[in-house]
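Researcher: Next sequence.
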Amino acid sequence: MKKVAVAVSGGVDSATTAYLLKSLGYDCFGVTMVLFENPSFLEDAKSVCEQVGIPHHIIDLSQEFKKEVINYFISEYEKGRTPNPCVKCNRFIKFGRFIEEAFKLGADFFATGHYVKKIDDAIYISDNIAKDQSYFLGQIKKEFLPRIMFPLYEKEKSETRSIAKESGLSVHDKKDSQEVCFISTDYKDFLSKYIDINISGNIKDTKGNIIKRHTGIYNFTIGQRKGLGIASPTPLYVLSINPKTGDVIVGSDDELFTKELICREINLLTDESIEALATQNLFAKIRSRDTLHSVKIERIPENRLKLIFDEGVRAITPGQIAALYTTEHKLVASGWIE
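Model: Next structure:
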């Protein structure tokens, strides 16, 4: 009998994962990571484990989380980029320190409620494309893949909730978490505790003309239209952000499309080398809900890649990752967009 540590967050996905694996005969125990003070989900996580009938362990990773995720989140906004804390957390915390602690507790495998398919130790886009979360796993370490399980990969969310309800799990109708887990208020209020977010700058057009002043680059992200406060005969969108000058450049929707990007810190999820990627027919996603874009790859110095798209891609955003997939939807690599 294989022993499985199930990451129990107190939500319906992880609860159903624990129930399904226990029903299949696995020797399961629940593990919940504490990342910040007074987590609201902790009682639900304990309750789920009691209802499923499995032991429950709490692992305090708050110090590691602050160092690797919260500090990164703040730093990225200071640099005029849009951070992706979930990708960073999956790399260093959930599929980093957390999975290591689960194995120390005797687990043979580690299971989560991600909607991701895994075949032969490789990650694929989930059968439930609308809920697919493979993009967020683009930076995890490939050495952990043989010991990770994703039981919900072929489930629709309605089916997951139905299973939870029929099995008597109290969280069957709990709402999905939508916001950054460590921020309970507006993210600007959070940032204001650590950095001066009220540093003014200029909003300019692509010719360098000043349109108006703004109260901080943290209010903007690439592709943003709402909240600019600009009267214009045609819609204007954020094209770029310069953290050194404080300039926010705006322009038309057409100007948001570009045909290439550079990404750094390349993470390989297969046995293939970076050089081998350049010889394959690959596709890229630049955000979690993006479509797959046909792309050619060139390796450039300092462990970076240049991605050249067949067609223009809208609103490429520094701070996000570019995830690379094969024609079979296998996730092979990712890198942080510069």
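Model: The CA atoms of residues 269 and 332 lie 5 Å apart. The two ends are 46 Å apart (CA to CA).
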